[in-house]
Each structure stands twice: as structure tokens, then as C-alpha cells.
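User: what does the whole thing look like in 3D?
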Amino acid sequence: MMRISPSLVPMLVVALMVLALYWPLMYLANIPVAQRALDTGAALPCQTAFECATQLRSPVLPSPQQLWNGFGNLMFPLNSPNAIPINAAVTAFETVVGLLLAAAVGFFFAIGMVVSRAFERALLPWIVASQTVPIIAIAPMLVVLLGQYGVQGWLPKAIIAAYIAFFPITIGVAKGLKSPDPMALDLMKTYNASHWQTYLKLRFPASVPYLFTAFKVAMTAALIGAIVAEISTISFQGIGKMLAENSRASDVVAMWVIMLSSAVLGILLVALVNWLERLLTPWRRTGPVAAGPSRPAREGVRSA
Amino acid sequence: MSGLYRPSSYWTGWLLLGLGFGLLLWFIVAWWDQSEPASSAQKLLIGLGFLGVVWGIARVAQQFVDTPNPVIGFTPAALTLLALVVTAEALLRAYQVPAGLIPTPSRVLSTLLEVRDVLLQDAFQTVVLEALVGYLIGCSLGLITALLVSRYVFLERGLLPYATIFSSIPIVALAPVLVKMIGIDWPSKAVIVAVTVFFPMVVNTFRGLTEVSPLSLDLMRSYAAGEVQQYRWLRLPNALPFIFNALKLGTTLAMIGAIVGEFFGANGQGLGFRIQIEAGRFGFDIVWSAIIVASLIGIAWYNLVAWLERRLTGWHVSFR
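Assistant: Here's the predicted 3D structure for the full assembly of 624 residues, as C-alpha cells:
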């Protein structure tokens, strides 16, 4: 954190360029809409299309001023049930619970696949297929279904988040458990280590870096799952509920603000995993060196 | 353990499998027209049948562990699916779960046949217009961006960090904004799909283009190979496996993007629209049918890309 990354200056230049391009783009996109609104004689607090471009009710691209105001409206008061902070916290909670559920399921499948190749033969094609299925399609139904059996509130969302997130964890952990090199495994054998000891002392520690890499991917996936679950169900809290509400109300500026906040939420959640990784695996400062494309995924394809 | 050849255990495995399926199927046939829940003895029988099938698969699967033929090697997986479907059917009939809540698999299949014309129209809109167009646009833009980023260090430093940041952003939040911005017809969903597949493509392709062995680079240099030749003969072939990984990942993302995009507004067609509408009025047999159609298309698309990958990168280590 102390040293300045060489990317800083180019990143700033790119960001400034994007910001500088935003104004002309916004005018370009909004002026025709503003012109049409003026032509139809809508009551607008402005005379020319150029002025109106920054004040439209539903702009194509909102002006920075509008975004700033919208941000102020949605952020405060901090503890209001309609403000972003509380809703984001609810979504984050669902995401994290989902991730933990996914980790449990993922570990189960991964260990099963490493221990028994028959298990792998029977299930891996469907684990891979479960990802090519547009899982999100199941979300609306799953929530109604769980609701019928009294599972309501945050749990169904966490379950859907887990369903989406378990795949990267399964693959990552399986890869990690298989990662110790044959010499190390031989060494365990010469020590007369039992199956169980090999797992505890060699395979599990070896899989930790892979686990964190998988967690980063899974965290984003779980967040997407949680938001979609909130959107497609009756929910009273959460980012997804705010999105659905404002989509129905056609409040474009609010939708932009929520989109940007959920982006920040996603980045924060992944940063949390990064922080945990640095805390728990101090012996390696970077993730596992990815040598070539992920092998388990390819194996999955071959056996599918 | 698993390497030992024990014909007798396979034999018992098939026997268990047969007995289990027999029990379950017998129950389904016996309960076909019933409208009362089964007695607890019969539920116990279903449990026994399921146990038998699972145990049987576990035994039988040993036999297929080392089969090189992918079709024969798929047998245990096929048996697993069959076991799950048959058990679900038996359990749903035993407990007489109302069809409005969870339709039985047989009911879903018959509904699928009934409404296939509507679903095929929906699938055309969702898959061909939205997912495929967006996928092609997003992937080609991602490829071009990666080429540029790998060529110019300034772009690498200025753009690539953003690409990694973008990969941790939930794309669904983008969907309502884009639908409002572009309209409810198919182009808005194509744009959502393009944005979704773009970033994995850039990150993966960039890795493939730059993780080239220094020795090969030196060799190219000693041949006095130009920039273009270096890309043509070294970097692009090296990146192919990475590109295909992104392409495979993209098929899933594209389907999800298109379907989620339709949740926020559609012109009355599309698989996502159908699912949203029918889930709202408890038409779960149609929802399941739509999911089956979407899954079949998703799996077929994924396997098509995987097949292309095997054709084009058959030389790669992971296939040998």
C-alpha cells in the first residue's frame, strides 16, 4: 500500500478521459430527448434543449449534477429503511451467508470428487451442466416454493446465492486438493500417514490459496444471486428490491445511483476476501500462480 | 481400492440398480391416478428404492471410471439424472404435492410438448437475437481490446485494473438501467449480454497473449520476426486456450444476461419474460419447461464451443 503502483498515472488518465468524454456524450444523448419534450410542450423549467438536457426526468444519461443529488437523496438518512446503506447491508449479509453455504456444499462435492472417481463420474457432468443452465431462471420459482414451506426473508435469497456460488468453490477446492505435488504425497506415504492425516496435514493446507481465488469469483456470483433473488420475489429490503422498485417507478437517476452503489458493494466484498486472504495465508502474497487455463474445468468438459 | 476388478460387485450393483428402479417405477404406475397421499409403508418403499438406486450407481460407476469413450463414460451421470427424476416423480406422487406448487416431471414433459411452439419462439428471441448477437459483439470487442492492451503498456496499466474491478461488479444491477436507456426490445438485452461477456474475454485473452514463454519470445526475436508475425505465430496460438475458456464462460453468462435482462421489461416474448410471467401466476409446469429449453440450449451451446476448442487446440497439454 505504501509504494505507488506504476498503474496509478495511466489509470487516472483513463478515468479523466472517460469523465471528459461523459459531458459531450450526455448532451449528445439527452438533447434529442429534451427537444422532443420541449416540442410536446411539457412543463420544463428551462427554455432551450441544451439547458434541458441536464434536467430531464428520465434522461438517457443522467448529468453529474443529477447523479450527485440522487446520491444525496438515497444515501441519507443513513438509518432510513429506504436508504441505500441498510439495504446494501441486508444484501451483503445474504451474500455472505450464501457464500458460506456454498463453501460447505462445495467442500462436500470437492472432497467427494477427489476421494472417489466414481462419484466424480456420476456427478461432475451435472455440476458443470448446472452452470450452463441459466440458473437465475430458477430463482423466481425457488423463492415462491421455499415461501410455501415457511422459508422466508433472507434465507431463500442466501440459498439462491449459494446455488450460484457453489460451482467455482467446488472446482477451486477440487483443484486445490489435487495440487500437492506427487513428491509431497510420496513423503506422506513414507511417513506412514493415514488417509485422514494426508488430508489434514497436506491436502487441506495446499488447497487454501485455491480456496481464496475461488471465493473471489464466488463472492461476485453470490452477490448477483442475492440481487436477482430479491428482484424476482416479494422482498422488503435489499439492493434488488430497490432496483425493482425504481425500475417500476421509472426513476432513472435512482437506478443509476443504485447501480453504482452495488458496484461499490461488489468491490468491497471482494476486497474483504482479499483482506482475509492476506490475513490467513501470510506465506504467499499473491494468489496461486495460474499456469494455463483451469484444468478441472477442462476435465469436466471432457467427461461431460 | 477402486482399481481392483471385482466382477461380482458390478453384478450386485446392476441388480441393486434394477431393483431400485423397479420399486420406484412400480409405485409411480400404481399411483398414477390416485389422489390420496401414500401410506407410510409405501413412502418407506420409495426410500428403499432410492437407496437401492444410489447404492447401485455407486457400485456400477466404478466400472466406468477409466473408460476413454466419452459416451460410455457418461452412463453413470445419465443414471444419476434418471434416478433423481424418477425419485422426484415418486415422492411428489406419494405426498400428493399440488401441481401448482411443484409439478411432477411427467407433467412438465407433457406441458413441454404442448407449449413447444411458444417456447421455441421465446427461445429464438432470447437465444438468437439477444444472447448470440450480444455474445458475438462482446467477444469480438473483448478480443480487440485485449490485443490493443497487450500491445501498449500504457493501456495495460490504465485499462486492465478497471477490467479486474469490473469483474467484481454485479452485472444484474446494470440490466434495468440499460433496458430503460435503450428500450424494451431485443437490442437492450444484446447490449447487456455484450457487456457481461466483454470483461472476462479481455482479462483471459490478455493473460494468454502475455503469458508467453520468454524462450519462445527470444526465438522469435532471433528469427527477426516482426510484431505481426509474433502475434500470428506465437501470441495468438498461445492465447487460444485462454480465449476458449472465456468463450465457454461467456455462453453461460450470455444466457443469464439475456434472461435477467428480460425480467426488467420485454416486448412480450422471450424465455426470461415467460418465466417471470408464469412464475407470477403459479404456472410452474411452463416455468420448468422454459428452464428445460433454456438449459438444453445452454448445454448445447457450451458443448459446441468445447467441441470447437478441441478441434482448434487439440495440441494443448490439457487434452493429452
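In plain terms: Chain A touches chain B through 74 residues (CB under 8 Å). Chain A has two domains: 8-60, 84-303.
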